[in-house]
């Protein structure tokens, strides 16, 4: 039978649930809301009736750090960007690693996410919502994997805060900014080629930085991307402006990446500081490297290329992502309207 005890202390009011059942150890859990406590009690008792609840004592042996180490060893290496997921998981280890896995409730995770959102960066600002979202995704995936391992049963990850990311940012290089940017990156071994590729293909920074030499077919003028955001490989054109830059690069023996790090050739280089210096030199404000992807798409739409074709180049599965560019081609839409007018007039003749 479940017993719910209301407790009031310095941290506020909590509701402690105790479930005692013959043949099972006492199961306890605390909640910030009574409705959550009652819901958990009903579900847990139902699981006991069906014999689906795993022994609580075994679950209490596992810590968040135990789960994180298993996750880092077995799941992270196969991800597209393992270094990023590793960094996010290690942050969670620092924050809550010593906690028992069963005690890592959504309330605890949400509190940590809110703390992270308010933490000032070295530049005096705060982390972008998209960055915080990666931390949320990391801990949510870890908890769901722990459930599959049988270490916990109900992680309640649906109650974890999902930071709202503004995907409607519409910042493009203007006709005046484009030549200034190209002049500012000119001569930089990595950034010039990356910028030309981004503007000429609409590919993401991660897709380009992870590019290997065997993905480039210079004879056919094609690049095949394997490590894409949605996991689907796609082929993109090799811009003519990139060909001489590629030819001028010195390919290091035994190094497969086109943009290898100087410290570790198996990892991509980091061009963030070079990018910020280039923007300062070009006197361009509020431009992210990702905005070059938006710029490439906007150029195509303004040239009359269909949204379906643009979506195929960018790797969008859903045209909703591509429709943000539809307002950039009013002349093209007017041309389509004229063709429909001719069709209607011909039918009425």
Q: Over the alpha carbons, how many angstroms does the gyration radius reach? A: 27 Å
What series of H and E elements makes up the topology?
EEEHHHHHHHHHEEEHHHHHH
Query: Average pLDDT, to the nearest integer?
Result: 83
Apparent shape: elongated
Main sheet properties: 3 strands, antiparallel
Q: What portion of residues is helical?
A: 40-55%
**Count of beta strands:** 6
Report how far the terminal alpha carbons are from each other. 82 Å
Task: Explain briefly what this protein structure is.
The protein folds into 3 domains: 1-53; 57-166, Tyrosine recombinase, N-terminal domain (DNA polymerase, domain 1); 177-333, hpI Integrase, Chain A. It is 48% helix and 9% strand.
How would you summarize the topology of this molecule?
Blueprint: E1 2-9, E2 12-19, E3 27-31, H1 34-50, H2 56-60, H3 64-74, H4 82-96, H5 106-118, H6 129-149, H7 177-185, H8 191-201, H9 205-209, E4 216-217, E5 222-225, E6 234-237, H10 243-248, H11 272-282, H12 291-302, H13 307-314, H14 319-322, H15 330-348
């Amino acid at each position: 039978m479940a017993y719910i005890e209301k407790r009031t202390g310095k941290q506020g009011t909590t509701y402690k649930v105790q479930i005692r059942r013959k043949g099972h150890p006492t199961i306890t859990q605390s909640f910030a809301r009574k409705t959550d406590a009652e819901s958990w009690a009903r579900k847990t008792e139902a699981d006991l009736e069906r014999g689906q609840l795993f022994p609580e004592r075994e679950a209490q042996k596992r810590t968040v750090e135990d789960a994180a180490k298993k996750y880092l060893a077995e799941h992270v290496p196969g991800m597209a960007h393992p270094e990023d997921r590793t960094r996010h998981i290690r942050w969670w280890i620092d924050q809550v690693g010593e906690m028992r896995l069963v005690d890592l409730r959504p309330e605890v995770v949400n509190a940590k996410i809110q703390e992270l959102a308010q933490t000032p960066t070295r530049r005096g600002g705060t982390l972008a919502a998209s960055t915080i979202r990666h931390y949320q995704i990391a801990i949510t995936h870890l908890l769901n994997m722990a459930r599959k391992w049988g270490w916990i049963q109900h992680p309640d990850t649906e109650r974890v805060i999902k930071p709202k990311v503004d995907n409607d940012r519409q910042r493009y290089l203007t006709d005046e900014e484009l030549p200034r940017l190209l002049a500012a990156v000119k001569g930089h071994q990595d950034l010039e080629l990356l910028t030309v590729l981004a503007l000429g293909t609409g590919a993401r920074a991660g897709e380009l930085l992870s590019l290997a030499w065997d993905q480039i077919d210079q004879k056919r003028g094609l690049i095949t991307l394997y490590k894409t955001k949605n996991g689907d490989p796609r082929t993109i054109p090799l811009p003519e402006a990139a060909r001489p830059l590629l030819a001028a690069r010195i390919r290091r023996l035994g190094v497969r990446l086109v943009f290898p790090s100087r410290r570790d050739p198996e990892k991509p280089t980091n061009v963030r500081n070079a990018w910020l210096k280039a923007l300062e030199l070009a006197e361009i404000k509020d431009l992210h490297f990702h905005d070059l992807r938006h710029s490439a798409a906007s150029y195509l739409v303004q040239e009359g290329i269909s949204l379906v074709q643009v979506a195929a180049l960018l790797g969008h599965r859903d045209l909703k992502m591509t429709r943000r560019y539809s307002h950039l081609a009013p002349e093209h839409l007017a041309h389509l309207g004229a063709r429909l007018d001719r069709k209607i007039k011909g039918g009425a003749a």
